[in-house]
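Handout, page 2. Input:
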Amino acid sequence: MNSNKVLDAKGLACPMPIVKTKKTIAGMESGEVLEIHATDKGAKNDLAAWARSTENELLSDKEEEGVFKIWIKKG
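Output:
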């Protein structure tokens, strides 16, 4: 999946992946896609819930070798 920006949140524990995602996506234009890489097992569910509670859209997620890759489109 194509993204406009990649956020490396590997090694960060909750709530830092969400904090960094929120800060990064705030500087992006509506419709742009942020790709987040995280190793915290809770990040996938936390980011999905965060996207639902904001005007952003979780497009996709997958796990590769212990790294969660999550794509969120800015609303």
